[in-house]
Amino acid sequence: MKSELIPRPRRRPPGQERPSGQERHPSARSDGALRDGPLKREGGAQEDDRQRLKQLDVALQTIATQATRKLRLAAGEFGKALAWFERGATAEKLNTNAQLDSALKVGKSEKQKIELLKAQINIRVHGYGWACFNTAWPSSTDKTVGTVADLARRVKQIFSDEKAEKPRPPSEPPVPDTATNHLKTLGC
User: Fold this and answer.
1) Whole-angstrom distance, CA of residue 172 vs CA of residue 150
2) Sequential pLDDT tens for the chain (188 residues)
3) How far apart, in whole angstroms, are the C-alpha atoms of residue 125 and residue 130?
4) Rounded to a whole number, what is the distance in angstroms from the first to the last CA of the chain?
């Protein structure tokens, strides 16, 4: 036996009277809402509806949790971008090979030199949003990656690319996108 829904009464605009001969639906309140909540259905349909509502509630809570997490991650990324952007506005940012060579010749340890070179790259990658200058850091498998010589060569390459392309630093730090899952594409 098929269960059928009782149609909800339509609301009339204020001041418009009900035509004579029409009666109010027995479960309708004066404000047009239903008195007893959802309409009665036969069999186990109400229980199925409750279960489905519980599933939807869990799904919505999961989506809300994921959205909050993504928002926190994006806020953290923006904070990181802002910090590097501000460092780029100071004298810490080097623009020429001569400045880089003189900064590396000063009596600094290997670790301090690597930090200086990483800062030059991070100012451009994170602070300005120029992802094309993203660079690999020291690796436990390849000892030549991330050394002072390797990073100095990379920073000098960045300087020459900046001269050739003449990109202007942005007036504000980039706003990162929220992290999303990459969906597979059919046929790729």
Assistant:
1) 30
2) 455 666 666 666 666 666 555 555 555 555 545 445 555 555 567 888 888 999 999 999 999 999 888 888 888 888 888 888 888 888 788 888 888 888 888 878 888 888 889 889 888 888 888 888 888 776 677 777 778 888 899 999 988 888 888 777 777 887 776 556 666 666 64
3) 5
4) 49
Each as own residue / partner, the long-range contacts of residues 42-48 (CB below 8 Å, 24 or more positions apart, any chain) are 42/1, 42/3, 43/1, 43/3, 45/3
In angstroms, the CA 81 to CA 170 distance is: 12
Tell me, yes or no, if the pTM score tops 0.90: no
Distance CA 83, CA 90 (A): 11
CA distances in angstroms from 13 to 10, 29, 30, 174, 180, listed in the order given: 10, 15, 13, 50, 45
Report how far residue 119's alpha carbon sits from residue 123's, in angstroms, rounded to the nearest whole number: 6
- Domain assignments of the chain as residue spans, ordered by start: 61-165
Q: Tokens representing 71?
A: 């928002």
Strand-pairing partners, residue 34, are 28
DSSP conformational letter for 107: S
